[in-house]
Every structure is written in C-alpha cells, then in structure tokens.
Amino acid sequence: RLGEYEAAEVLIDLHNALELAGLTDRQCEAIRLVYFEDLTQVEAGKRMGIGQDAVFKHIDAAANKLADIYYYWAGHDEGYSTGGRING
C-alpha cells in the first residue's frame, strides 16, 4: 500500500507542476499525445499538423519548464533534490 500512496503523490505533484509550469497549448498537447496517449512523436505531429522536429521542440521546452518547477521545489524543501540541474 505504501507504494500506491507514493505513486499517487508523484502523480499529484506532476499534475501540480503541469499547472504551474505555464506551458503553451501546443506544449500541453504534445505532452498529452506522447506521454498520456502513448503516440510516437511522428504520430503526434500528424495529429497536430506539424513535423516530428516541432513536436520534439514542444516537448523539450515543456520538459525544461517542468524541470524548473521541480528545481524550485527542491530549493524550498518541498521533497525534491536538485539532481545536478545547474541553471534553470
């Protein structure tokens, strides 16, 4: 049961980070399609009307914004460590 509780906490934190990160609509869409609907970047690009390279850029920018949230939380004793991230 402890593992289920910890997994739920991670999902809640991810949901909060997604809300706080200030992602664009396109970044949210790319994240949703690739990580929640399990599409490839090529398939996501077809749905979004863009190329795989643009999907990659949206995901990369979103990942950086999310990392900044977790980095902030780590610096404010919110249960995360910096893990070597140098500059946000």
UniProtKB/TrEMBL annotation:
The keyword Transport does not apply. Keywords: DNA-binding. GO terms for molecular function: DNA binding; DNA-binding transcription factor activity. It holds the Pfam family Sigma70_r4. One of its GO terms (biological process) is DNA-templated transcription initiation. InterPro entries: RNA_pol_sigma70_r4, RNA_pol_sigma_r3/r4-like, WH-like_DNA-bd_sf. Residues 20-66 form the RNA polymerase sigma-70 region domain. This is Sigma factor-like helix-turn-helix DNA-binding protein. The lineage of its organism: Bacteria, Bacillati, Bacillota, Bacilli, Bacillales.
